Amino acid sequence: MTIDSALIKSSFAAVEPRGSEITTYFYAHLFEHNPDVRKLFAEHRDEQQDRLRAALTTLVDKLDDTDTVVAVLQGLGRRHAGYGALPAHFPAVGASLPAALAHVAGDAWTPEAEASWTALYGVVTEVMGGALTEAATD
């Protein structure tokens, strides 16, 4: 699988105006399918939803700037170590993110978009997970 930057950007542009719907659906999906991760999150998720939306926007906006993307993901990984996140949590997020994007995009969500987002999430997992693991061992 390869990351199609243009497809990531166009598919995100189609759903970005409905950002709060993405994050609301994301957390509902995540907690429904992975109730054990609920304890890692504050009761009120407004701020967390805003952070998720901002992180997604930054990731997509800077997608062609590898150094910036890596730095952002490493920072997120280090911060998530402090929240108690584990590499084992990444597959749950990796299932809930495309589910949320697909839900909001509706018929505009294509198999190609899903494949590209899945490839992108593989990079997120690798970089963020590496920083999380490193921070947890320090």
TrEMBL record:
Residues 1-133 form the Globin domain. Keywords: Heme, Iron, Metal-binding, Oxygen transport, Transport. PROSITE patterns: GLOBIN (PS01033). InterPro entries: Globin, Globin-like_sf, Globin/Proto. SUPFAM superfamilies: Globin-like (SSF46458). GO terms for biological process: cellular response to nitrosative stress; nitric oxide catabolic process. GO terms for molecular function: FAD binding; heme binding; metal ion binding; nitric oxide dioxygenase NAD(P)H activity; oxygen binding; oxygen carrier activity. Gene3D superfamilies: Globins (1.10.490.10). PANTHER family: FLAVOHEMOPROTEIN. Belongs to the globin family. This is Globin domain-containing protein.
